[in-house]
Amino acid sequence: MENRTLGVVMNGVTGRMGTRQHLVRSILAIREQGGVELADGSRVQLEPLLVGRNADKLEALAKTYDLSDWTIDVDGAIADDDYPIYFDAQLTNVREPALRKAMEAGRDIYTEKPTAESFEAALDLARLAKQTGVKNGVVHDKLFLPGFRKLRRLIDGGFFGEILSVRGEFGYWVFEGDWQAAQRPSWNYRAEDGGGIVSDMFCHWNYLLEDLFGTIDSVNAKAVTHIPTRWDEKGKQYAATADDAAYAIFEIGRTIVQFNSSWAVRVNREELVELQVDGTHGSAVAGLHRCRVQPRELTPKPVWNPDLVETTPFREQWHEIPDNEEFDNGFKVQWEQFIRHVVEGGPNPYDLLSGARGVRLAEAGLQSSAEGRRIELAELSL
């Protein structure tokens, strides 16, 4: 069996997510293990070319991880036949033209999301991928996290019976930046720079809910800016013009999903994102890592009595789902899946069309909030 090497242009990799999750914990980890194993037992090794706008940052990053190939010439990198895969982790407002240029050059593309600033632009990218015939993938990292994989296992095993409702909670308190530094970049809170929790997180909720429960039929959302003034990385005060919280109801057939997303909430749950799924035969609470269940046969019988102090240990009445396998980093797992798709040609549901559906949900959520009404979502195809 003959092993091979694939060159990967990595644009925007100097950012926190690009460096930690995509370069270090995915590409370099794959290189360390000897490449991506294919169905025939052979392996594909990856050779990254670091690309960005800041030469000093790129040079320092390459030196830190003993890499020799980096450039600020993105056009030259895309034109280089030694690197047939283009990956994009740039800011959203510069991502679409780069993806378009890469596909027009015949490069297979893998990208962070949102894939574009508007639904129409995201859909155009999916159409271009179909027209050019390039392989294409969008990061759907949360599908590969242990807690949601355990939840998927429960769904596939028929644990819930009919799934009635889902309640999602995501978020944490992001400091304003005056007396403690913020944990997120300031552009996240400026609409003019592409910020906002709806555009950021609804793309995630779309693929997560779609994969677990089915296609989203409608959305009714309220997006708000709870913290109107923040301080940036240099300590300068600025107006927060983007939404920092969103409260939404999604309909998936007969299943009702309530999902709260907020950067202005203090955490009173076990993980920063959790889904509670209630069905006729049982319920589950799943986070990034853990998943606990309460089947019908073990469901207690609470009685409402406001005159007595509640002493029932409700959280102790749930049962932990075991790992039953070793879970790898979610970003790395999807990188391996995409490389196999490129080399072996197998199916890949996590494509630009899926990415466009995520952008559409974000747009529909903002439209719903602005107009104060429920927005229906039609079936989407190219």
TrEMBL record:
Gene3D superfamilies: Dihydrodipicolinate Reductase, domain 2 (3.30.360.10), NAD(P)-binding Rossmann-like Domain (3.40.50.720). GO terms for molecular function: oxidoreductase activity. Keywords: Oxidoreductase. Coiled coil: none annotated. Residues 148-284 form the GFO/IDH/MocA-like oxidoreductase domain. This is Gfo/Idh/MocA family oxidoreductase.
